[in-house]
Amino acid sequence: MINQPIGALLIQNELKIVLRRSLTILDTPAEGYVARVICIANQKGGVGKTTTSVNLSASLAHRGRKVLLVDLDPQGNASSGLGLKKHEYQEANIYHVLIGEKTIADIRLPTSQERLTVAPATPDLVGAEIELVDAQRREYRLREAIAAVASEYDYVLIDCPPSLGLLTLNALAAANTFLVPLQCEYYALEGLSQLLTTAGLVKKNINPELRIEGILLTMFAASNNLSHQVVSEIQTHFGDKVFKAIIPRNVRLSEAPSHGQSIIAYEPKSVGALKYLELADELDKRVFADIQPPVFSEGPNA
Ligand SMILES: Nc1ncnc2c1ncn2[C@@H]1O[C@H](COP(=O)(O)OP(=O)(O)OP(=O)(O)O)[C@@H](O)[C@H]1O
Ligand SMILES: [Mg+2]
């Protein structure tokens, strides 16, 4: 290094600065970027919607993205699974947002994970479906609420309940895309056509930009032949709509919520954590490839 001509060193350093700056620009949302809103939906119960919402959110935040997770399930599992305490949101949660009493900015709460915020839910949310029956623009309530904060985030993820009622309709109306977790079991595809039909109707009548983000295979058991069959059938059927990352059955994933932690905080070296990080990587690369970064310019005298 000592013998290297000073000019070459300067050029190298200059190059490093330019490269670093270009990389930062490529990795930063374009100005005016508003969050990608992704709804995690499947009306089938227990397929891994909440596990995916929580751990994909945490994995994206771990990558440096700012994430809002909207708990839209009256079971409130995403809220409690991330360690929020009921008394903190009993009087201010997503139910109050849907009925128009509060905004998301009023009710969101930070989590122990940096960059991850939650709009929590309680069983009160069941009431919203009934109270909104005659309300005007009832299927746009969540969309309008998210629009007010979307510019503050890179991602907004919505954890849906296991039904195709007004709550899931609000989520599909608010979303850019929907992600469908499918359990690797014999009846995996059961109900999928109903979900796709509903999404099609929402796209036609309420939210023309709605697209499918992808199908996520969950609870894969490598030792089970059936799991392998289901994976290959779904991959053949849906091609590149299936995420390459496949979530294995992993006991750490089921333990984490009882500790009020995502898998990234609870057991970062577990195979469950690694696979959700892999999913976040796959998704994030795809989402940010969609965005045209501003052309980097040093100005006329550069
Ligand atoms: N990959 C996994 N490995 C092991 N257990 C898992 C995995 N994914 C989810 N589980 C467990 O399976 C159960 C159902 O998962 P989860 O709550 O995420 O499903 P869901 O689709 O959100 O359910 P619901 O329809 O009731 O909202 C939970 O107890 C969860 O801890
Ligand atoms: Mg759930």
Any idea what the CATH architecture is?
Answer: 3-Layer(aba) Sandwich
How far apart, in Å, are the first and last alpha carbons?
27 Å
SS-based structural class?
Answer: alpha/beta
The CATH H-level superfamily is P-loop containing nucleotide triphosphate hydrolases
The CATH class designation is Alpha Beta
Beta fraction: 5-15%
Task: Look up the CATH topology.
Answer: Rossmann fold
Helix content: 40-55%
Q: Detail the poorly predicted runs.
A: 20-30, 292-302
Number of domains: 1
The tally of beta strands, per DSSP, is: 7
User: Biggest sheet, in brief?
Assistant: 7 strands, mixed
Number of helices: 14
The H-and-E topology, N to C, reads as: HEHEHHHHEEHHEHEHEHHHH
Radius of gyration: 21 Å
Averaging pLDDT over every residue, what do you get? 88
Major beta sheet, strand line-up: 3-4-2-5-1-6-7
Named once each, the bound ligands are:
adenosine-5'-triphosphate, magnesium ion
Which term fits the overall shape? globular
